[in-house]
Amino acid sequence: MMQTQILELLYLLASVSFVLGLKWMNHPDSARRGNLLAAVGMTLAVFGTIFLAGEGGSGMSNKGIILLGLVIGTAIGTVMARRVKMTGMPQMVSFFNGMGGACAALISILEFREMQHAGGVEHAIELVTGSADGGSAMKLLIIFAGLIIGAVSFSGSIIAYGKLEDKIKDRVLPMQQLVNLLVFGGALAIAGLMVGGQLEGTLWLYITLGLALVYGILFVLPIGGADMPVVISLLNSFTGVAAACGGFLYDNNVMLMGGVLVGSAGTILTVVMCNAMNRSLTNVLIGNFGGNKGGAAAAKSGSGGTIREVSATDVAIMMKYGQKVIIVPGYGLAVAQAQHVCHELEELLEKEGVEVKYAIHPVAGRMPGHMNVLLAESNVSYDKLVEMEHINPEFNTCDVVLVVGANDVVNPAAKSDPSSPIYGMPILEVENARQVIVMKRSMKAGYAGIENELFYQPKTGMLFGDAKATLTKLVNEVKTL
Amino acid sequence: MMQTQILELLYLLASVSFVLGLKWMNHPDSARRGNLLAAVGMTLAVFGTIFLAGEGGSGMSNKGIILLGLVIGTAIGTVMARRVKMTGMPQMVSFFNGMGGACAALISILEFREMQHAGGVEHAIELVTGSADGGSAMKLLIIFAGLIIGAVSFSGSIIAYGKLEDKIKDRVLPMQQLVNLLVFGGALAIAGLMVGGQLEGTLWLYITLGLALVYGILFVLPIGGADMPVVISLLNSFTGVAAACGGFLYDNNVMLMGGVLVGSAGTILTVVMCNAMNRSLTNVLIGNFGGNKGGAAAAKSGSGGTIREVSATDVAIMMKYGQKVIIVPGYGLAVAQAQHVCHELEELLEKEGVEVKYAIHPVAGRMPGHMNVLLAESNVSYDKLVEMEHINPEFNTCDVVLVVGANDVVNPAAKSDPSSPIYGMPILEVENARQVIVMKRSMKAGYAGIENELFYQPKTGMLFGDAKATLTKLVNEVKTL
Amino acid sequence: MQILEFIHEHITYIYLIVLMIFVGIELISHVPSVLHTPLMSGANAIHGVVLIGAIIVLGKAPEDDYLSLGLGFVGVVLGTLNVVGGFVVTDRMLDMFKKKKK
Amino acid sequence: MQILEFIHEHITYIYLIVLMIFVGIELISHVPSVLHTPLMSGANAIHGVVLIGAIIVLGKAPEDDYLSLGLGFVGVVLGTLNVVGGFVVTDRMLDMFKKKKK
Ligand SMILES: NC(=O)c1ccc[n+]([C@@H]2O[C@H](COP(=O)([O-])OP(=O)(O)OC[C@H]3O[C@@H](n4cnc5c(N)ncnc54)[C@H](OP(=O)(O)O)[C@@H]3O)[C@@H](O)[C@H]2O)c1
Ligand SMILES: NC(=O)c1ccc[n+]([C@@H]2O[C@H](COP(=O)([O-])OP(=O)(O)OC[C@H]3O[C@@H](n4cnc5c(N)ncnc54)[C@H](OP(=O)(O)O)[C@@H]3O)[C@@H](O)[C@H]2O)c1
């Protein structure tokens, strides 16, 4: 059957395209090409399956419905992905990830149904292993693995989505850890009994499904909203594993390869992301200084020293008659949606002959690359965005540093105070500049929920207010000066 | 058969140990552990094969002879590997590589013999593919691939060994390229005809073997001795591929995995090594400025400017009363075996309160890491060896730079002259120091065969003579001052 | 012993999985942190390959089994969402990272 | 078509080989240049796995076929040289790279 052989080749090409695509995504220059390559590989694999798989290589039955599903999915997916704002990207990724998880869970349900119809256990044997004993137990094991992992990934992703959209608040149940353990353990226990043959019937399948869904919710609910990128990356690798289960089930190489690849790459990516924030994964999951504690810690503010408030006019003069201004964008800039005004200010200053650069900290904002995405969106030229290692030596040649809604990434405690939770994280060394202006709304703490000594230094001036409003004021001041 | 299953598991573990071992070898801290891990994996695979493989899992026949071979090989290998001097390492690697190649070729010869005995073509079928047609052609193809690649690797490695031991000189035949093509083409053609079934008989096998051996010699003979590390790395990956052929032949996973791993890693390593010297692989193989041309280019020396000769006494005074001395070791230091005197000088100066460091260029010498190995051998402390990127900013704080038998790695043409063959290679920026002393025997060029403008600069003093002799003189001068 | 049996039966799968895990680890270990989000998104799109499973399930559902057809259909739609949405979002993100002429 | 046939028959091998090639490439791409020589030497020791082929050949040689026994024996000795020599030399080299207390 030539069709089967061609399909095998397509699967091989698709698997290679996934690996190469991910490899190319390692470098900004080739990243887009990598994504495209993986997409092409995926297309080959999907259409290959529809038209070449099945008995005799005649393709799938129900081609019409399948194609209809593809068309509808493509339409919705494209529209959603195109419409979403740049700053809404992480929740979008989470949503799509959830869809993949749901898809994996559905597959498991249907496969289980089919096993039951076909007269239960005995029939399924040759489908998986070709051997007589243990075959159907194996199949059940895979089905339940796909079901549980897929379901957790689905409900967890939806909660993560809700959190990032600010529709769901962080919530810790009493005895959260215990409840989590009971729910998850229950799901595993039922699955184990069914695989072992001690339990039977579709009802138990649905109970497992339900428990897994609940566990996904409980798992993500207490984690701070700001930690969601890490959680999404983790759920992402879960879905990868669920897809790999599917590959095992159908002896389908491309599902297996793609799933395992994402499973392993996603896990490492999660760890790497945690490292970039100087935290461990358990710390994120159990929540040592995540979102909900920020407010509390911030309460004990104003601990030492006095602050110096400055007016927008002062700052405008300083900048206009300076040689070099470095802007440090942070989470506050993103929240205030102030990137466009910021760009306007920058252009204005450049016209006045002032050199303006942006200092990009790798974990500024709430997702990696947040600042790049944000500023690029408002058309800031790419070579004005300077990464931490390269800008740090430049601060001492700079007249004014404008810290816009950033906090932790300029906190000197990371260098000087070994007891600080962010100790050891590399920071932007703004104190080396002649003047530091910090724009934020209050003296509240940032993500890590800790005091920032920088605000009390003599060279620091505080300019309070919403980032967008203050920046607009600055633009007007510079214009009218 | 539990034995077979255990063997399978051992092979899996061994394959993983190879990958992990190579991964760990990426970092100086874990490298030794990586090597050890791979060795343990190899041991498992070897003894597993002897005692668990074969029909019924009863192990191999002829166990006695096999073990005898292992013992003899281990004894000879250990003694050779322990006796060899550090500077003789590359030729030792080349020699062992050649042994692997020869082993692969022998396997092919014996498998061919067995095919003939068993009544030729038809019998071998199930051994390889399990399918009825093309099976034995496939087997023959693999046998010939292993034979040719193994033989080329063997004879090439032995020539490389001879060159590094200075027993074989570079030699270019008239019409070298054409002869190479004919010999290699001949081997391929005969192999092709035998696989296709048009030729038969053991004689042709030996003719192919002969041609492959000759090709290996012709391939390596014209390449400059200094390029041998690159060639050895390439031959290394050849032997990897030959081992992979064996894996294919016997359906043996660990041979396949190990062979392919080395084949691919070796190829990339070859390319990476070329890049570090700022050359392309073809350039090395066809020889653009390799060894034998160095002498010729050096003849046109003395082109511009005058040089300033200095005496050992001058240099001794300069160093003794300086604050900081940086030593730049190069190939000449290795040739003169001057590392021990050099260390003596360094200790002497340190005792006088002078700060002494070594500036290590990544491709100083004739093999990567050459200088580290050399100086570590003479007990120079590891933290005195500073890599290029870290030492370059230090030159301007340094009183005297002592360039000992280095040339290309301090040639400013790499930065300033786009027409130079080494243009673009990062160099040690010794010109930033207050004084530069260059120790070499003459005004001859180094490996790249080009003039070095540094020698003509006013701040440079030349101290002619063999590195060891001159350093000894310096040591005495410093002592008696 | 059952574990040995299991390894024996699935030995090629195990090799494939182990190697793929190594590939995944090595690929990601050297990524600059600004690319973490697009990379996560790209990986997200790739695990959309689970769509193929949904296609297989739907493709073998009997024509009169409406529940299977319905659920399978939903599976295909969701899987497609994952794939298409994933790739498009990633592409949009990466578009932000390319150098712009001023 | 023969090529399709070939791919079909050896599909798992092909996956394994392709993945292993990726692993090899990724592992080596980020090595500091001072480690090139020991790495080359370590890889050299690993391809000594060809020794297993020699063991198999020798192990199945008929007891009265002296040519096979002889050549197989030589093969085992040479393969062992590659393995043992390779690992020992690499170990000695790497020993030079470890930090020494002064
Ligand atoms: N990038 C990532 O991947 C990622 C992911 C998860 C967590 N994190 C963490 O997030 C933190 C990022 O540091 P960061 O310096 O960017 O942010 P930050 O430390 O969280 O500080 C943000 C500051 O912006 C101010 N702000 C909020 N809304 C504002 C508005 N509308 N106008 C003006 N100011 C406003 C807040 O102060 P007021 O309330 O006083 O205005 C707050 O102090 C790090 O701790 C990092 O580890 C990063
Ligand atoms: N490290 C590697 O992996 C590797 C591999 C292959 C090639 N290479 C190439 O080798 C070069 C290495 O640069 P390098 O600066 O170390 O060496 P180099 O440029 O080859 O220069 C060595 C100098 O040492 C002098 N010398 C030779 N014997 C001497 C002795 N007994 N006493 C004193 N001086 C002596 C020679 O000059 P006199 O004859 O006047 O004494 C020669 O100019 C680079 O071009 C690199 O690309 C490196």
Give a summary of the structure in a few sentences.
Chain A is an alpha/beta fold and 481 residues long. Chain A has helices at residues 2-24, 31-52, 63-83, 89-117, 125-128, 135-164, 176-196, 202-220, 228-250, 253-276, 281-287, 294-299, 312-320, 331-335, 339-351, 370-377, 388-391, 413-416, 467-480, and strands spanning 324-329, 355-360, 385-387, 400-404, 435-440, 460-464.
Describe the structure.
The complex is a heterotetramer, with two copies of chain A (481 residues) and two copies of chain C (102 residues). Chain A is α/β, with parallel strands linked by helices. Helices cover 59% and strands 6% of the residues of chain A. Chain A has three domains: 1-83; 91-130 and 143-248 and 262-287, no CATH class; 298-480, 3-Layer(aba) Sandwich (Rossmann fold). Chain A has helices at residues 2-24, 31-52, 63-83, 89-117, 125-128, 135-164, 176-196, 202-220, 228-250, 253-276, 281-287, 294-299, 312-320, 331-335, 339-351, 370-377, 388-391, 413-416, 467-480, and strands at residues 324-329, 355-360, 385-387, 400-404, 435-440, 460-464. A six-stranded parallel beta sheet of chain A has the order 3-2-1-4-5-6. Chain A is elongated. The relative contact order of chain A is 0.08. Residues 120-133 and 288-302 of chain A have low confidence and may be disordered. Chain C has helices spanning 2-9, 11-28, 36-46, 50-59, 66-95. In chain C, helix 3 runs antiparallel to helix 5 and helix 4 (50-59) runs antiparallel to helix 5 (66-95). The chains are: A alpha/beta (481), C mainly alpha (102). At the B-D interface, helix 1, helix 2, helix 3, helix 4 and helix 9 of B face helix 1, helix 2, helix 3, helix 4 and helix 5 of D. The structure holds NADP nicotinamide-adenine-dinucleotide phosphate (NAP) (2 copies).
Q: What coarse outline of chain C follows from CA principal-axis ratios?
A: flat
Q: Estimate the helix proportion of chain A, in percent.
A: 55-70%
Q: Which structural class fits the helix and strand makeup of chain C?
A: mainly alpha
CATH class of the largest domain in chain A: Alpha Beta
**What is the mean pLDDT of chain C?**
89
Low-confidence stretches of chain C: none
**Major sheet summary line of chain A:** 6 strands, parallel
Structural class of chain A: alpha/beta
Q: In the CATH hierarchy, what is the architecture of the largest domain in chain A at level 2?
A: 3-Layer(aba) Sandwich
Give the C-alpha Rg of chain A: 27 Å
